[in-house]
Amino acid sequence: MTEKVAMSDILSSVNALIKQCEFAIEQSNDKNFRDILIQNRNVLENIQWHVYLIDKEKGYYVPAAPAGQADIEQVKNAIGQ
What we know:
By secondary structure, this protein is mostly helical. It contains three helices and no strands.
């Protein structure tokens, strides 16, 4: 297994855990438990960000180019209608 594959697996796993936390937060009716889930989700999102930064730094992930102003305006107009 290459480092790139391992990093991809880590990111996929963290993303799945975040989704599970979100589901549990939505279903929870206990405030204390919900708060703990929210804290854990926040930790996972922080891990997700750091994995992304490592992937980007090593060239494993290349983000899409920023949208041009014409694209932004097109979306604004579509939403505004």
